[in-house]
Specification:
690 residues, nine-stranded parallel beta sheet, 17 helices, 28 strands, globular, binds beta-D-galactopyranose
């Protein structure tokens, strides 16, 4: 493993974007690492609850999330509460030493709510009014919904806010899914209020949205609406603002519930994010609102290297948490039920998944859900206690993992230090995802994953960072897809290079400002000082078309596809040029020395060896080196005040020796020089890490 001596530092107050919860109040509750999952016992007769708590003890469960979808049972009729069953449940858990993460049930309002407030139903972009019978998410801007949500939340906070079993609040569920945008009347009204605050005047709004184009100019606030489906493409600046507003409206719902809880409870409040899976929530903003960051992650069963996506989600979660430990709120013991082909996890895979999250900063390992449902939409989703019962592989592995997690208590609170940062900005992604971009083949998600994958294979530990955040702790920063780049961000990146950083920027970055308007001076202009190059014209390639790149140092040609730029050199040195294709003879990869650092620009879509060829050269500038471990082994270190913890996960079929010194905590064995990680196995070594 490689290591960089300094970890991320706190941003300078007032200058750059702050990251993570402002008042971290976790850990509370169970000692050591929390283990458990969503517990929905209202599906079962109470006799089953007794069996549940006994089996929980057997599995090492010490924390469960309850009440997340229970509104209709807690408030069977408007204003009429039935909390008796929840009283009994919480007492039972408490008596068995199991702590409670108490849900507010507001992700799914009851049937009576929608009957009384049909206007609160969500309207989709094409005007469809969403019905009841699923998770009944209401429109976030609906005044009736907000009122009802705060009322039930207050009732729960009053009753359980200081209960000794309750160690955490779980507000709502996965804001942004299954609904992220609402095109109803209440949403339109809320959008106008938000726009008035943002722009102050209609003139400012008209200017920001560029409404002189296609005759969209507004003369009355009342005429400004939500960007519903229209005859052709809707103004991208309007759509981008609506994405911002929609995210803001959900955050307002969260804040209202959080504040209702805080009025009666001193326990930390979270809501479960979906770091890489929910495109509509700007988690840099959300993380500031919670007391502790928590995340749900489900493997993409179609991806044979889904564990790289898992590592990426964990690293992104840790990054939005500002490097602080976080809670893995949900993952699955085996298959999910909502993908086209729900592949079961292989023996040992669940433990590899869980302990990878832990290695990358999670202090809690929780699942959806405790006991498999017999009825309803999720009955084929795996659980800690499967339909097959305790005579099952999954149950045995759940108990084994519980015992292992129990041996890792001392890891809690330790922190990961990253070697490099990848820029990640939800606003930029929202903008890039709109219609009529130069090529449908260039996606921010694919680019980011490709870069992450390369760094993962090279054994480098990665943080994600907002382009306006303090980057000074990272010797290497990669911008795989920064289409929207504010002037503040451009200045930040330039200062980063001047101060000695190595910045690698990839094509279709630095194109527009926060209103989706092209930067004055043209493409890449805001980064010209850092990169010494601008883009005169995009030269996207046809489907399947490939171009060759020749390195000026004589290294082997590499091949790329999808995209090329016509570059204008403004001081940068050419590292590779196009041999053929629409940019033949022109610069393809450049490097620019600025101050004490270097700015690299990659004008095409590189994958595989081509991407490695660029990044490995940039590592040299950054003083980094690729690890010599095999490609399918990942190693991360958590640093504590007393000790370091090396977590090594072997996804391959051969055992491997990883340099380490100390005690392997799962087996208790001493390690001298190297630790053997069996095929498919995980080790956690406390001690000196080489
Ligand atoms: C999550 C959700 C859970 C459950 C799970 C199934 O997104 O929060 O309630 O539906 O997916 O994988």
């Amino acid at each position: 493993m490689s290591s960089h001596p300094t970890g991320p530092v706190a941003p300078r107050p007032g200058s750059l974007r702050a990251v993570g919860p402002t008042t971290p109040r976790w850990p509370l509750g169970p000692d050591g690492i929390a283990y458990g999952g969503d517990y929905n016992p209202e599906q079962w007769p109470e006799e089953v609850w007794q069996q549940d708590v006994e089996l929980m003890a057997q599995a090492g469960v010490n924390l469960v999330s309850v009440g997340i979808f229970s509104w209709a049972l807690l408030e069977p009729r408007e204003g009429e509460l039935d909390l008796g069953w929840l009283d009994r449940l919480i007492e039972l858990l408490h008596a068995h030493g199991i702590a409670v993460d108490l849900g507010t049930p507001t992700a799914s309002p009851p049937a009576w709510f929608f009957a009384a407030h049909p206007e609160a139903r969500v309207v989709t972009r094409d005007g469809t009014v969403l019905g009841f019978g699923s998770r009944g998410m209401a429109g976030p801007s609906s005044p009736a919904y907000r009122q009802a949500a705060v009322r039930i939340t207050t009732a729960l906070a009053e009753r359980y806010g200081r209960h000794p079993a309750v160690v955490l609040w779980h507000v709502h569920n996965e804001y942004g899914a299954p609904v992220s945008e609402d095109y109803s009347e209440s949403s339109a009204a809320g959008f106008r209020v938000w726009l008035r605050e943002r722009y102050g005047s209609l003139d400012a709004l008209n200017a920001a949205w560029g409404t002189a184009f296609w005759g969209q100019r507004y003369g009355e606030w009342e005429h400004v609406g939500v960007p519903s489906v229209a005859p052709s493409v809707v103004n991208p600046a309007q759509r981008l603002d609506f994405a911002r507003f929609s995210d803001h409206a959900l955050r307002e719902c969260f804040r209202a519930e959080r504040d209702a809880i805080r009025a009666h409870s001193d326990r930390p409040v979270t809501t479960n994010f979906m770091a890489t899976a929910c495109p509509s929530t700007d988690l840099w903003e959300w993380a500031r609102e919670v007391d502790v960051v928590s995340d749900d992650h489900y493997l993409d069963a179609a991806d044979p290297r889904g564990y790289v996506g898992l590592a990426m989600a964990a690293d992104l979660t840790r990054s939005v948490a500002g490097g602080r430990p976080w809670i893995l709120m949900e993952h699955s013991t085996s298959a999910v039920n909502w993908q086209p082909r729900n592949v079961a996890k292989r023996p040992g895979e669940m433990a590899r998944n869980a302990l990878t999250h832990l290695g990358r900063g999670a202090d809690a390992v929780l699942f959806f859900q405790w006991r498999a449902s017999r009825s309803g939409a999720e009955k084929f989703h795996s659980a800690m206690l499967p339909h097959a019962g305790t005579s099952s592989r999954v149950w045995r592995e759940v108990c084994e993992l519980g015992a292992e997690v129990g041996r890792l208590g001392e890891v809690r609170g330790s922190r990961v230090r990253a070697d490099a940062a990848i820029l990640w900005d939800w606003e930029s992604f929202w903008a890039q995802d709109l219609e009529w971009r130069p090529s449908v083949d260039l996606g921010h998600r694919e680019r980011t994953r490709a870069v992450y994958d390369r760094l993962w294979r090279d054994g480098l530990t990665v943080d994600f960072a907002h382009p306006e955040a303090d980057l000074s702790a990272y010797p290497l920063v990669v911008a795989p897809a920064s289409y929207l780049l504010s002037d503040v961000a451009a200045r930040n990146l330039t200062a980063y290079v001047e101060a000695g950083g190595t910045l690698v920027v990839m094509c279709f970055s630095g194109i527009v400002d926060e209103h989706d308007a092209v930067h004055p001076g043209g493409y890449l202009a805001p980064l010209v000082d850092a990169l010494g190059v601008t883009v005169e014209e995009f030269l996207p390639l046809r489907t399947g078309e490939r171009v060759r790149l020749a390195w000026v140092d004589g290294a082997d040609h590499v091949v790329s596809d999808v995209w090329a730029d016509h570059l204008v050199l403004r001081g940068a040195q050419v590292l590779a040029h196009y041999v053929d294709g629409p940019a033949a003879g022109g610069a393809a990869v450049t490097r620019h020395v600025r101050g004490d650092g270097t700015g690299w620009y990659v004008s095409t879509h590189l994958t595989g060896d081509g991407l490695a060829a660029v990044l490995h050269r940039a590592y040299a500038d950054a003083g980094l080196a690729a690890s010599e471990l095999p490609d399918d082994v990942e190693v991360v270190v958590r640093h504590g005040s007393e000790a370091d913890y090396l977590v090594a996960v072997n996804h391959g079929e051969e055992s491997v020796a990883v340099p380490a010194e100390g005690t392997e905590l799962l087996s208790g064995e001493q390690v001298s020089g190297a630790v053997k990680v069996p095929a498919g196995g995980v080790v956690v070594v406390r001690g000196r890490v080489r």
